Amino acid sequence: MVFPDSDEENYDRKTEQKAFDETKAGVKGLVDAGVATLPRIFIHAPEKNSDKKSTTATQFDIPVIDLIGLIEEDPVKDKGIIDKILDASKKWGFFQVVNHGIPMEILDEMLNGVRRFHEQETEAKKLYYSRDFTRKMIYNSNFDLFSSPAASWRDSFNCILAPDPPLPEELPSVCREIVMEYSKRVMSLGITLFNLLSEALGLNRNHLTDIDCAQTLALLGHYYPSCPQPELTLGTVKHSDYGFLTILLQDNLGGLQVLHRNQWVDIPPKQGALVLISNDILKSVEHRVLASRLGPRISVACFFGRDTLGGSTRVYRPIEEMLAEDNPPKYRGVMMNEYTSYVRTKGVHGSSLQSLKL
Hints:
Low-confidence stretches: none
Shape: globular
Protein name: Fe2OG dioxygenase domain-containing protein
CATH superfamily: B-lactam Antibiotic, Isopenicillin N Synthase, Chain
CATH architecture: Sandwich
Number of domains: 1
Structural class: alpha+beta
Number of strands: 14
Oligomer: single chain
Radius of gyration: 20 Å
Distance between the termini: 47 Å
Family: Belongs to the iron/ascorbate-dependent oxidoreductase family.
Strand content: 15-25%
Strand order of the largest sheet: 1-2-10-7-12-5-4-3
Largest sheet: 8 strands, mixed
Keywords: Iron, Metal-binding, Oxidoreductase, Vitamin C
GO biological process, one term: response to molecule of fungal origin
Pfam family, one: DIOX_N
Helix content: 25-40%
Number of helices: 10
């Protein structure tokens, strides 16, 4: 695999991006080719890497919420769960959930399915390689490859599973069954969590689902290969998700960090737990994934949102019931297709909500 001369005088970033993209082999292709030095497009500015040593995991209690009360239909525990969700969403913008009803064997098989997809022959993966977001199933490396300041050390596939699920034959055979099964389980859990969040905000239990916060579901299977120079890059840059809710399944290698009180906090994997990132009563937490010499790291991110292809004119704005004279709206209204187009043009880095600040 040959890339253009990266000497300062001759360096052509666009040409290097194009050369990488045209391999359709992703970051894994670089690792399989024995790359020992990162191509220039993956090297992040020094200030992006300077704070990696300032992380901490011991000063804070990572919020973990046990949903067993919902399973037992215990109203006392139910109230306690709602209070904990509100507290975690206000203070952290994320929390982990356990006893969520998805069996461990399904979680493990979902991670294995992602691994099988990314570790199959490149020729098989190339069938899905695309940057056309209207397709139900695509695979690529860095959806924002041509717009981000630097590429991340990560390959991904993206399945659009709701509101119109793909036909089984549209999904890769190596992970078809588990993607369909896991997506059903996650959709059910997502609706439960939206109901709890609605109640936590003092709204009608169905408020968030009634405004279509769970209309769409996108499943992303991320693959972070071992990196020869992890100090120069990131697995995923600092950003906040642009959907309404993200449910993340991660393997046991770690690497996920959230920004809390201006410090990067490691979110260690917890067996059977799922990480929830909620989107200024509920924080839109900034988070990132470190690159590592260990790998591959595998994660599955499920994003709940609103259909952008159906021509909807619904405008999303701060919830009226949450506003008051002393708490005016902080963000302007926006249609989902406008917001999604902005994010895809800007790339994954930073907070997209800042573009809507009043």
